[in-house]
Amino acid sequence: MKFIDTIKEKAKSQIKTIILPEATDIRVIKATEQILKEGFASIILLGEKEKILKIAKENNVDITNATIINPIESPNFNDYVKEFYELRKLKGMTLAKAEAMMKDTVYFGMMMVKAKDADGLVSGAIHSTADTLRPALQILKTAPNTKLVSAFFLMDLPDCNLGDKDGLFVFSDCGLNSNPNAEELSEIAIASAKSYEQLTSKKAKVAMLSYSTYGSAKSESTNKVIEATNLIREKQPELVIDGEMQLDAAIVPEVASSKAPGSQVAGQANTLIFPNLDAGNIGYKLVQRLGKAEAYGPLCQGISRPVNDLSRGCSSSDIVGVVAITAVQAQMQ
Q1: At what angle do helices 105-114 and 129-139 cross, to 10 degrees?
Q2: Would the CATH topology of 3-141+304-332 be identical to that of 150-290?
Q3: pTM confidence score
Q4: pLDDT of 90-118, one tens digit each?
Q5: What is the pLDDT of residue 1?
Q6: By CB distance 3.0 to 4.6 Å, which of 94, 132, 186, 214 could disulfide with 123?
């Protein structure tokens, strides 16, 4: 069974309600049809009902069982406006501005999640990461004891016998933090290990990636990764982690035996922590496009309620997968 199919089965055990605020995008509409057909989540689409149904009909897509809410027609609209104003008034928010912003489907959806009128939200097919995460952080805030919000991808590679040998990897951070310092990188790694273990029920083996393995090269960049690795060992001594190491040393046993002999991680890493956003974003897209991997994300960690981003190049099947993951994250809360 493919990984995403196991996630869907978990989602079916306790149906959660997920909001899709980009309901006029045909990929979102097609994804909604598939989700409802498979029956692993309830879906709320936000936007003008007539327009959404017209697009669905023109494309022969059945979204009969989805709930469609136009924010400005919702009986909760004024309550959400007032609550958003209260949340942000010390930041200069006015009631008039709060009302205008609540007409935005992403902001309205975040208020629904905060009010527990829904369990999670998935956006990003037509919005930037910033336009998805800004309202999440303004309304939902960070989870308790969270120092940093970060984003990861779950990468499922077909017929892969590298790493943990099941073809499933976490790549992090690939969508949010541009150039994390050592402290931030350590928080990203700890959160990513937890995310991997929650979603797979397997032990995370974390590789702190660099262009250097065990001091084969030295620079400000490699020093940052080494410092981050040491910080993680202080914070979470039980975590299986190693670094700094090159990608081939992290996932190829033959390379690991020569570059990092004796490592608990080298040659079998399943959680790959990139030193910066350039490396992470390029890395996941190379594996997705050239390696034909299924890439789910950017999945967010550190927000108080389940909110996940999408790549604007996503397909409808990508949206289906991210909704399934979001539903399982909601179960875990």
Answers
A1: 40
A2: yes
A3: 0.88
A4: 888 899 999 999 999 999 999 999 999 99
A5: 66
A6: 132
**CA distances (Å), 11 to each of 92, 267, 303, 328, 333, in order?**
40, 32, 20, 5, 13
Q: List the domain boundaries for the chain.
A: 3-141+304-332, 150-290
SS percent in the chain: helix, strand, coil, step 5: 45, 15, 35
Q: Measure CA of the first residue to CA of the last residue in the chain; give whole Å.
A: 25
The fourth-level CATH superfamily of domain 150-290 is: Isocitrate/Isopropylmalate dehydrogenase-like (3.40.50.10750)
Q: Do 44 and 73 meet the contact criterion of CB atoms below 8 Å apart?
A: no
Helix count (H) and strand count (E) of the chain? 13, 11
Give one DSSP letter per residue of 208-245, joined into a string.
EE-S-STTSS-SHHHHHHHHHHHHHHHH-TTSEEEEEE
Residue 291: Cβ-neighbour burial (10 angstroms; 0-12, 13-18, 19+): middle
Q: Do the Cβ atoms of 191 and 229 come closer than 8 Å?
A: no
Q: Under CATH, which number does the domain 3-141+304-332 receive?
A: 3.40.50.10950
d(Cα 181, Cα 320) in Å, to the nearest integer? Answer: 34
Instruction: Please report, rounded to a whole number, the percentage of residues in the chain having pLDDT higher than 70.
Output: 100
CA geometry: angle 259, 261, 266, nearest 5 deg:
75
